[in-house]
What we know:
mainly alpha; elongated
Amino acid sequence: MAIYESNARAAIADILPENRRAFGYGTFGLTFGVAWMVGSAIIGYLYESFPSLIMFFVLISELLALFLLLDVVKSFKKKR
């Protein structure tokens, strides 16, 4: 977790100009925290109601995150 957060913060510093970094860090933290909370709530609900579906939820979430990451990397490479 520490490695991920360090790399994400370093990437924010590389992407944004100095006068916008505080806003970028705040937006990143807010988005990361809300996504974590929503994901945990969904997994908690599935654990209570349909434990066998947790694996599918996690798999679909990871695939969506992978496609989003690939799209972001592709658009970032086009800008350079």
